[in-house]
Amino acid sequence: CTKDKTQKRSCFCVFFVRKNKGKEFEMEKITGSYNPFEGRVTNPISNMKASDVRIDYSTFIHEIQHLHFNLFSVIGKIIEVLRIERKWTPETDGSHRIQIEDTMNILCESFRGLQEIYANSMELLWLADYLGSETAALVYEKKSGKYKDYSRKFYGLIKENTDLEEKRQLIHRLCVQAAQPDMTEIELAELLTDDGRLKEYFKGAGNME
Fold first, then answer.
1. CB-based contacts of 95: which residues, under 8 Å, 6+ apart?
2. pLDDT of residue 46
3. 18-22, 65-69, 100-104: which is most confident
4. For position 3, what pLDDT does the model report?
5. How far apart are CA 108 and CA 73, in angstroms?
6. If we measure between CA atoms, which residue out of 152, 206, 149, 146 comes closest to residue 178?
7. Is the pLDDT of residue 105 over 90?
């Protein structure tokens, strides 16, 4: 994930391209990104067809998973609600917009690791489903740095010779549970009004990774 000049967070995934048959994949370019402040995937691959699946489509699948996870998890839904509130807050109410953005930044930063665990795992399952387990394994081995760490969380499960859909559902369920704050709705609402307490919560009991 990177920050642009306005501090809005976007999550990027680099895809792999096989330049010559039998040679290694190389990190080539960014083909998509998910921006939680805008609630959309930008720069999607055009003309994606199920009959012409390529390895670089996994980037698009990866980014879509960020949006998908937001819509199914408590923290993700809160981010979506704040995004809409920010959008419809008048520019003249600058202090409120800043408060919304500060809270969103805390949530997005705290949620980022779990988001990447989810998206990388679902990407690898998609590759295994459409291009085979060997391709998924190769992409996993070529992931770099923190993305390799994110992918490693569920890679033991992904490698198992079991039903792919069952693995998807299990990973989805575990990640959704991890994004469920252990408190009442009233306690959560109160926590969201105090950025200091919110930061401390996610550093400790609320750590989602």
1. none
2. 54
3. 100-104
4. 42
5. 13
6. 206
7. yes
